[in-house]
Design brief:
Elements: E1 15-19, E2 25-26, E3 29-30, H1 32-38, E4 45-49, H2 53-58, E5 67-70, H3 80-89, E6 97-101, H4 104-111, E7 116-119, H5 127-137
Parallel strand pairs: 1-4, 1-6, 4-5, 6-7
Antiparallel strand pairs: 2-3
């Protein structure tokens, strides 16, 4: 299903940054309902993680439907430098991405750089609230 652009639509389509472990994957498996929600958007998606090589396997972060970005804990997402390097790698600006993340410290890190960010509560897994965030942010 393709969503129609809203009023004031920016021709530069924003990239969705997706938290990896405990959000996109749960117990080493892709969160199917979350993946289905993301597929409603034609925007580019990048899965972001701190994971090193061993953790990529343990968290089920291999053979994913979207590109994966990791700095293997050097630095972690709680350090704004992580997002600076991510934006540089993909030639993006902070206003060209939206991000959702379960770790509050990583949320604060991204917000400190002006990245529009949503705290995704992994206890609630409220996909409707996430959909509303994405709809209003893209």
């Amino acid at each position: 299903m393709q969503l129609k652009p809203k009023k004031g639509y920016n021709k530069t389509m924003k990239t969705i940054l997706v938290d990896a472990a405990n959000t996109f994957t749960v117990n080493g498996e892709i969160h199917i309902e979350l993946h289905q929600l993301l597929e409603m958007y034609s925007n580019k998606k990048i899965i972001v993680t701190n994971a090193n090589d061993e953790q990529l396997i343990a968290f089920g972060l291999i053979n994913l439907p979207y590109e994966l970005f990791t700095l293997k804990h050097n630095p972690d997402k709680v350090n704004p430098e992580y997002f600076i390097l991510l934006l540089e790698k993909f030639n993006l600006k902070n206003d060209e991405v939206v991000y959702f993340e379960h770790n509050l410290e990583a949320v604060k890190s991204a917000v400190s750089l002006g990245i529009h960010t949503y705290h995704y509560d992994v206890e609630k897994r409220d996909l409707e609230a996430l959909r509303k965030f994405l709809d209003s942010s893209l």
